[in-house]
Amino acid sequence: MSKKTVWFEVGENETLDACLERMKSQGYMAMGRKEEPVFEEVNGEPVPVKQIVKFKGIKMEN
User: Fold this and answer.
1) What is the number of domains present in the chain?
2) 20-52, pLDDT tens digit by residue?
3) CB 55, CB 33: distance < 8 Å
């Protein structure tokens, strides 16, 4: 039995559209999105390095 809700992370070399297509191919549709910053410490200060984008996928009914 598969989960009804799954978070899909956009890969490093993946476009947002490619991630959404991957979700669709696995039977999920996007119902939410969140972005998480990734920081690296430089000279004792947090510096933003990149942004992680995740889509909340809800299992589609057949």
Assistant:
1) 1
2) 999 999 999 999 999 999 999 999 999 999 999
3) yes
